[in-house]
Amino acid sequence: MRLDKFLKISRIIKRRTVAKEVADQGRVQINGQVAKSSSTVKVEDEIKITFGNRMMVIKVKQLQESTKKEDAAKMYELIGEEIIEK
What we know:
five-stranded antiparallel sheet; 2 helices; 5 strands; 19% helix; 30% strand
């Protein structure tokens, strides 16, 4: 599954266009490698996302083509979240 689609379906980022912009700006890493919006996401991948002054690390648990709001959180596990001091 494409990275931008995963971020939208899992509701980590609300819109796919925003997910695409974030990824293409180099603010997303998959398993330590900078990822583009078209990068492929697989189960057990570790994704690190930087939002302004916050960094979020998640592990992909499952991939679904569509999901309900209450099931979206089952697609990933939050490993860590931290505030980045500037």
